[in-house]
């Protein structure tokens, strides 16, 4: 497992505003590597109380960092 491939939902504008692109593969959330399912669940639990998120994404073979503030 290398991460999760993401696609925009019903409001593609929000997806784009967050700095994400269709087909990005999220490999880490707030420094939690998404290489195992249990780590993915841990990362999602941490998001519940977070005001901002740092995603590491693989886009076209290149690692990038995307920061999202709520």
From TrEMBL:
Q: Cross-referenced Gene3D superfamilies, in alphabetical order?
A: 2.30.42.10
Q: Where is the PDZ domain?
A: 16-59
Instruction: Please report the name of this protein according to its UniProt entry.
Output: PDZ domain-containing protein
Q: Which domain of life is it from?
A: Bacteria
